[in-house]
Write a structure and sequence with these properties.
Order of helices and strands: HEEH
Strand order of the largest sheet: 1-2
Radius of gyration: 13 Å
Strand content: 5-15%
Number of domains: 1
Largest sheet: 2 strands, antiparallel
Helix content: 25-40%
Low-confidence stretches: none
Oligomer: single chain
Number of strands: 2
Distance between the termini: 15 Å
């Protein structure tokens, strides 16, 4: 959680939120990477897919102003 808070402080002009990372990974970067401008790569494993689903749920709730518990 401290990492997300540090990112939010360093880049206040960007929306930031805490994302649950499912086991066995410890860090978001273990599952998801930026492959280029506006291109993300996501691991195939169950934990990676669940984590990415959390990100998509948060993104959709922000874009459409939906209160969705995550």
């Amino acid at each position: 959680m401290l990492g997300a808070q540090s990112v939010a402080k360093a880049f206040p002009e960007y929306y930031t939120t805490i994302v649950k990372v499912y086991p066995p990974a410890l860090h978001l970067k273990d599952y998801i990477s930026m492959a280029g401008p506006e291109v993300m790569t996501v691991g195939r494993g169950e934990g990676a897919q669940k984590t990415f689903l959390v990100i998509l749920t948060i993104l959709l709730s922000v874009l459409f102003h939906i209160d969705t518990p995550v």
